[in-house]
Amino acid sequence: QVQLAESGGGVVQPGRSLRLSCAASGFTFDNHGMHWVRQAPGKGLDWVAIIWHDGRNENYADSVKGRFIISRDNSKNTLYLQMNSLRVEDTAVYYCARDSGRGRVISARPDSWGQGTLVTVSS
Amino acid sequence: DIQMTQSPSSLSASVGDRVTITCRASQGIGNSLAWFQQKPGKAPESLIYDASSLESGVPSKFSGSGSGTDFTLTINSLRPEDFATYYCQQYNSYPLTFGGGTKVEIK
User: Fold this and answer.
1) Best mutation site among A1, A3, A47 for testing chain B: the one with the most B CBs within 10 Å?
2) What is the pLDDT of residues A43-89, one digit of tens each?
3) Does A105 touch chain B (CB under 8 A)?
4) Which is nearest to A72 in space by CA: A21, A110, A2?
């Protein structure tokens, strides 16, 4: 059974940094790409970033490009999101999600999601 | 970027009804479209991929259709547990984009 558990959320001031983690279990982590998707309070889903199974390729939403970095440690079955220069508009629940591609192929479609961690950017 | 427009943004329906939600892409995406269900305070769950393929374990009351720019999600025989918000997502090209959501409420 796929399990994804996000952590690292909290309250942070604008301009500061925060790192989120996502611990994965129940599947072969290094066979799958991974996503971060966020949801501002009362709003819809907003894709943030994707990383390939081996960590060698990434892609970002324009709104976070140059500020956020997605990375992974396959030896620890863990996904990360380093968030720098945070803005009030980054306030959201951040979900990690597994890419549905099999055999190290990226489909760009999330198929399993964690429960999310809340990031609040406020002075 | 590809814009995904869902309609309606909300609808009211009764238990037993059939409802249809539409999703329109700003440019052709082939069949690279997924549908998700999200209940309040919970993570999204995948329902349909490749526009019309049902995820494992999802009941056949859910169905999807369409290709190119116009897609639909149909839910037959609404049950109380189906009242939720539904999102479409295109995965034809980056950046990946979601529709704004359709909230299905009890009439």
Assistant:
1) A47
2) 999 999 999 999 999 999 999 999 999 999 999 999 999 999 999 99
3) no
4) A21
Compute the Cα dihedral for A22, B47, B2, A53 and give only its sign. positive
Q: Could you tell me which residue, A115 or B107, shows the higher pLDDT?
A: A115
Q: Which residue has the tokens 């269900």?
A: B37
For residues B78 and B91, what is the distance between their CA atoms, to the nearest angstrom? Answer: 28
Beta strand spans in A10-88 (E) = 10-12, 18-25, 34-39, 45-51, 58-60, 68-73, 78-83
The CA distance from B17 to B11, in Å, is 12
Contact B43 A116 (CB under 8 A): yes
CA dist A48 and A64 (Å) reads: 7
How close B95 gets to chain A, by Cα (Å)? Answer: 6
pLDDT value at position A102? 80
